[in-house]
Inverse folding.
């Protein structure tokens, strides 16, 4: 697409008015947006739960109406992730090990956290580090170069180690994100009020 910034902006502005369905969607989103802003002044819990129900209903209806297309998109996303997942790059694997090591060190020196959080992080990061060391031991004992990825992933034991290492890494990152947004942000909101 060979358009400059202003042509792209004009196209973006015209898009919501291109069909009747997009006009309806635009009106629904504007109403929901105004409703959210209005409810910030009222702070009514019944309205919040009703609004949550409306959002769930709207997205459920959208998913039902476009279910075949959404499932096709999800299938493509999963295929892409599985390609990355089944054939991980050694550099990326080493990068994940460094990230989990950083998380472990940060968690050791962090004071403002729960004991349960520390135990979970210790368990996951030590498991990830152990798998990486095991991966290196297998490579050294079998005289396999870490540069030759084809040779590494032909061995089932090394492939399985990297596979589970990536799963544990994803779990660590998801856990850290969920913990950060659910607990730390909640504490900050309490302090602001």
């Amino acid at each position: 697409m060979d358009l400059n910034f202003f042509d792209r902006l004009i196209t973006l502005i015209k898009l919501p008015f291109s069909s009747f369905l997009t006009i309806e969607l635009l009106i629904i989103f504007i109403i929901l947006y105004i409703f959210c802003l209005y409810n910030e002044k009222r702070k009514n819990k019944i309205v919040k739960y009703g609004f949550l129900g409306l959002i769930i209903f709207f997205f459920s209806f959208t998913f039902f109406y476009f279910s075949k297309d959404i499932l096709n998109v999800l299938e493509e996303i999963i295929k892409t992730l599985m390609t990355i997942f089944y054939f991980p790059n050694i550099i990326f694997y080493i990068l994940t090990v460094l990230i989990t090591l950083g998380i472990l060190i940060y968690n050791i020196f962090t004071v403002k956290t729960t004991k349960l959080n520390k135990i979970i992080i210790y368990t996951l990061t030590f498991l990830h580090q152990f798998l990486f060391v095991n991966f290196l031991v297998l490579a050294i004992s079998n005289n396999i170069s870490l540069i030759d990825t084809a040779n590494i992933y032909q061995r089932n034991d090394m492939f399985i180690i990297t596979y589970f290492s990536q799963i544990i890494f994803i779990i660590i990152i998801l856990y850290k994100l969920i913990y950060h947004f659910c607990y730390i942000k909640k504490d900050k909101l309490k302090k602001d009020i």
Summary: The chain has a mean pLDDT of 78.
